[in-house]
Amino acid sequence: MAKVIVGMSGGVDSAVAALLLKRQGHEVIGLFMKNWEDDDTEEYCSARQDLEDARAAAEVIGIELLTANFADQYWARVFENFLAEYRAGRTPNPDVLCNSEIKFKAFLEHALRLGADYIATGHYAQVREFLGEYQLLKAEDGTKDQSYFLYRLNQQQLAKTLFPLGNLYKREVREIARQAGLANHAKKDSTGICFIGERRFADFLARYLPKTPGEIRRLDDDRVLGEHQGLAYYTLGQREGLRIGGVKDAAEAPWFVAKKDMEKNVLYVVQGHDHPALYSERLAAEQLSWIAGRPPHTHWVYAAKTRYRMPDAACSIESLTAERCEIAFATPQWAVTPGQSVVLYESRVCLGGGVIL
Known about the structure:
This protein is 24% helix and 31% strand. The chain is built from seven helices and 17 strands. It has a six-stranded antiparallel β-barrel. A five-stranded parallel β-sheet has the order 3-2-1-4-7, sandwiched between helices. The protein has a four-stranded mixed β-sheet with strand order 9-8-11-10, with no helix packed on it. It folds into three domains: 3-201, 3-Layer(aba) Sandwich (Rossmann fold); 210-273, Roll (SH3 type barrels), CATH 2.30.30.280; 280-356, Beta Barrel (Elongation Factor Tu (Ef-tu), domain 3), CATH 2.40.30.10. The protein is α/β, with parallel strands linked by helices. It is globular. It has helices at residues 12-23, 47-61, 71-87, 94-113, 155-159, 170-180, 201-206; strands at residues 3-7, 27-34, 64-69, 118-120, 125-130, 133-138, 161-162, 214-218, 224-228, 255-261, 266-271, 279-290, 301-305, 313-320, 324-334, 341-346, 349-356. α3 packs antiparallel against α4.
């Protein structure tokens, strides 16, 4: 049996991952990661309660729980990039960087120094070795599959990673936890920014990016409709928080963000979910990362996701270099957002992807 260090967050998923590995006979140690300290207060910081929940779970499972602080690495490798992307008018996905730089780099390196054979997490994904190569697969539970956030993992990382929940459904995980007497079996899933928590996002962002108000204009005729608080606070396809209403000669359909003009500090909006300006037939991406260590073929038919939880969209890679690729979709895709990731699949196998330009 192997020595496995499990990243335990205080949630039910990582607790059950540790429990299952212990039942399989492995030497299991839990490790709680503290990665955010900048504005930890009683109002916002959930890390203290999460640590207590992880300790309680480890005690029930019968394993040791260690702690590690990667706050400096998180700030340098994840959060500075997060802020830079917002300043540039893009909408980053911090979970992607958090996984590749913290959970499967800083944590993995720390675990190996502690003598671990493998690390494990509560992610819903699967790893398999096929013809001498490690593949990242979608989880059995399609509603919880997290392979989208893991597309930057490489062969060395996957070779040392276990995903014990990959073949389970969330309801099964909660039932395993309940039967084992884990107090967190009904704990609500976290939906906040990776390691930062569930803060009111606009207020949080305002701590680091000053508000730069400007005009909101209708894309179709350049008519001024209102004022925005700063382009960093809006994302393509956004409907809430625009504060546009009662526009003369306009239909009652909702407004959506369609474009940002960073040079003029103008936010452009359109009316109606199905407005043509919200759809894209193709995209370009950079910062490419391929799990196999080599790029896929061009002009083959693949499936792609341009945001988490969206259905697979048929596509092909029209051009590909080491730095950039262009992807064409069989049907136009809604609100393709710069800064988000496009992730490619061949059936259940995640191939990798890149950051949308």
